[in-house]
Amino acid sequence: MARHYPGGMPSPHDTLAPVISAAIAAAFGDEHRGADPVLRSSQFADLQSNAALALAKRLGMPPREVATRLVQALDVTGVCERVEISGPGFVNLTLADSWIAAMVQQVAEDPRLGVEVAPALVVPIDYSAPNVAKEMHVGHLRTTVVGDALARTLEHLGHRVIRQNHVGDWGTNFGMLVEHLLEVGESSEAARLVETDPNAFYQAARVKFDGDDGFADRARARVVALQAGDGETVRLWRSLYEMSKHYFNRIYAALDVTLTDADLAGESTYNDDLPGLCAELQERGIAVESEGALCVFLPGFTGREGKPVPLIVRKSDGGYGYGTTDLATIRHRVRDLDADRLIYVVGATQSLHLQMIFATARLAGWLPEDVEVVHVQIGNVMGEDRKLLRTRAGDSLRLMALIEEAVEAARGVLDEARPDLPESTRHTLAWQIGVGAIKFADLSVAHDSEYVFDLARMVSLTGNTGPYLQYAAARIRSIFRAAGLDASDPQARSIAVVEPAERALALALLEFGSVVRQVGADLGPHRLCAYLFELAQTFSAFYEVCPVLKAPDEATRQSRLALCAATFRVMEQGLALLGIATPDQM
Questions:
Q1: Nearest to 293 by CA among 266, 317, 309
Q2: Are 186 and 148 within 8 A, CB to CB?
Q3: Phi, psi of 414 (to 5 degrees)
Q4: Where are the domains of the chain?
Q5: Greatest alpha-carbon span in the chain
Q6: Is the pTM of the predicted complex or chain greater than 0.70?
Q7: Which CATH class is domain 12-95?
Q8: Mean per-residue pLDDT pooled into runs of 10, the chain (586 residues)
Q9: Pair 333, 309: CB distance under 8 Å
Q10: Rounded distance, CA 55 to CA 32, Å?
C-alpha cells in the first residue's frame, strides 16, 4: 500500500526545510527555529539554502561561519550524499540517488501520485456567469476555464466544491425579452434563436424597444408584471431560461467543463431575500438613505475629491441592483451552504465592487472572519493589436466561434502532420487538441494578467502549448503500445536512478504533489501549467539519452518503463485537473 504524508508526498524541499530549521535551532538557539531556510534550485546542487546569509546579519557573524555551524548541525543521513558551502555562505545540498529512487518509487506506486487528500473544506466557487438570452463571448472564456480548473483541482485535493453559476436572469431587460418572445411565439424559429444565436434574438428585441413606442411601453409594463410574480409573465420568463440552458450546455460541452444545470444559481434565486436584507442593513445603521436610494458608505472607499463611494443596495425607484444580489449570495453561501472558503472567479474590473461587497458582508456579520473570501481576478483576452479581442466589425467575439476556429486550426495541423489517420479519428483529435490549446493558453498565464490570443502559436506542437503536452503524453503511450503494455497501469517495477537524465526526471516527478497543493492554496493554475511543461521537457531529454525498450538489461528496462509510466500518469492527471484531454495518439 502506498505511504502517505500529511499535506502530500514530500518533495525534496518539503523534506529538507524542517531538517534545516531544526539544525538552525540546534546551532543557534530555539528562538531562531522559525528562520526561513530559503531553499531553491541551484546549478551547483539539487537545492541551495541561503539561510546562513539571512541569519548572519541577525547574529552579527560572518556568513561562512554561520554556514559552517549550520552544516555541522545538519542531519541529512540517507537523504543527501553531499553538503557543501560555497560563495559567501550558501549551503548546497546534493540528494542521494538512493533517496530519490525510493521516493519516486512511492510516487509511482501511489494511486494519487503523491497528492494527499487535504482536510475537507466547503468551497463555493462563483464562475462563468453568462446572461440568459445573450451570447457567451470571449469575456466568458477565462472565468469559465479558470473557474473549472480550480474546481477540479480543489475537488482532487479533497474539498467539497459547490459550483455556483451566477447567471444573469433578472432585470429590466427581461421585460423587453419576454414581450418579444410573446410576439414571435414560443415555438417559432425566431424564439429558437435563444438556443442557437442568442444575440440575434436579443438584437431583434432591442430594435423593437428602441423603434416602437408601443412595444417599449408594453415591455416596461412586463417588467412590473414579472417583478410582481404574474403567472403568465413568469412562465414566459422560465421558457427563455430553459432555452438559454440548452445554449449554455452546448458551450460547456464544447469546452468540456464540469458545469451542469444543477450548478445554476442565478440572480433571481435571491429575489425573495432582498427586501429583508435591505431592512436588516437599515435597521442596524449599516445602510442609510441618500438621495432617495439606500446606500452603504464604507470607510476607505472614496472617489474623486475624497468623496465617499456608495454601495447602492436599493435604488431610488425601489429596485435592486447587482450589489444587493451579491450580498445575498454571500449570506446564502455562508449561512446555508456552510462555506469555509468563498471563491469568486470574476473579471479584474469588478475588483472595487467586490471589495465593497466583502467589506459590507463582514460589517453585517454575514461573512465571519474565519471564512476566507478570494476574488480570483481575471485579466482580458487581447487581439494581436493589443486591444480587447473583437471581431473585425468591432463586436465582442462569440465564444462558440472562437472554439470552432481553434478546432479548425487544430484540424489543419493534423491534416498536414497525420494524413494517415482515419477521418473520424482526426475529427475527434481536432476537438481535443483545439479546445486543449485555447484552455492551456488561457490557464498558462497568471489569471490576473492579460494575454494575446495567437491561434497559430496555441495549436503548435512545439513550445509551451497544450498540444505539445498532449503530444508528450501520447508519445509515452506509444512506447507502451510498442511493448504491448498499458501506460496507465501502475505496475510494481523497481526504480533505480543512475543516469543524470533519470535523476532529473525523478526529481521532477517528486514535485507534482506540492505543485497541486500550491495551486489549491494560491488558486493559480498557471503554476501547474508551468510544471507540466517543464516535466514534458525533462522527459524529452530523458528519452533522448536513455533507451527504454532497448535498454542494456532487463532491470534497467523495467526501471525506465516505471519512470515513463509515472510521467504519463502525472501528465494525464495534471492535464485532467486543467480540464484538458489526453488523446490516445497524435
A1: 317
A2: no
A3: -65, -45
A4: 12-95, 171-259
A5: 89
A6: yes
A7: alpha beta
A8: 44 88 89 70 85 88 94 94 94 96 95 92 97 91 97 98 96 93 95 93 95 95 91 96 96 97 95 96 96 94 86 91 95 98 96 97 97 96 81 70 94 93 95 97 94 90 96 96 89 91 97 96 98 98 97 96 97 98 94
A9: no
A10: 8
